[in-house]
Amino acid sequence: MEKQNNFKSWIAVLTALVTVLGASAACLASVAVSNASDNDFAGLDASIRAQKAEIINHVYAYEHYRAFTAYFRYNELGYLMHDPEADADTSARNAAAQQELWGVASGISSVFFKPRYINPDGQYDIEQELQEALAQDAQDADLNIAPYFEESDHLRRQSSFLTADMIVIAFSFWFFTLAQATEKKIKYFWAILGALTGLAGVAGIVIGRFMI
């Protein structure tokens, strides 16, 4: 009788331990899901910032490109003012008009766009401006969404594994319950199964928390 009571006492202790393990697995799974949601939100926030920066950069870049086309037009008109066959009066008027046109072109280039984006062939490198603007935005704010969503996926895998481990722990609890309720020798079989599944549950918690 005393042996029977000792067995049931040990089973009760093991059942309590399994219950704690189940609660721990549930807590860790819940924390992982919560952290995954936080990373989803952070990734979405970074994505919104990146889209906003891209839109603003395109607006500014094409405004600069439009200014460049005006600069190019005035600059070319200035060259057209030169007429080697014109008389002195016409040449003087052309020279004055030329200086005025080039002055406008110079003013546009110094205020409304950056001349360094003009290629040697005279074309405006709008892609280079966009790339530099994006690089500057990336220095000023976090626009990289990939790490957030990768971490979110990792945490969701961790949560799924821990949730599955809770099923293993539930089996352990069920086996211990059978062992405690059974009077025949098969109770030792149930107890062994409960212990093995309980150990598997412990291993699952360790793997889910630190190795996934």
Q: Total number of β-strand segments?
A: 0
As residue ranges, the low-confidence spans are none
Distance between the termini: 46 Å
Mean pLDDT: 91
Oligomer: single chain
Shape: rod-shaped
SSE succession: HHHHH
From the alpha carbons, calculate the radius of gyration and give it in angstroms.
38 Å
The level of helicity is over 70%
Give a brief rundown of this model.
This protein has helices spanning 2-80, 88-111, 126-140, 146-181, 186-210. It is mostly helical.
Features:
mainly alpha; 212 residues; 0% strand
Explain the overall architecture.
This protein starts with a helix and ends with a helix. It has helices at residues 2-80, 88-111, 126-140, 146-181, 186-210. The chain has one domain. The chain has five helices and no strands. The mean pLDDT is 91. The protein has 212 residues and is mainly alpha-helical.
Question: Secondary-structure map with pairings?
Answer:
Blueprint: H1 2-80, H2 88-111, H3 126-140, H4 146-181, H5 186-210
Helix pairs in contact: 1-2, 1-3, 1-4, 1-5, 4-5
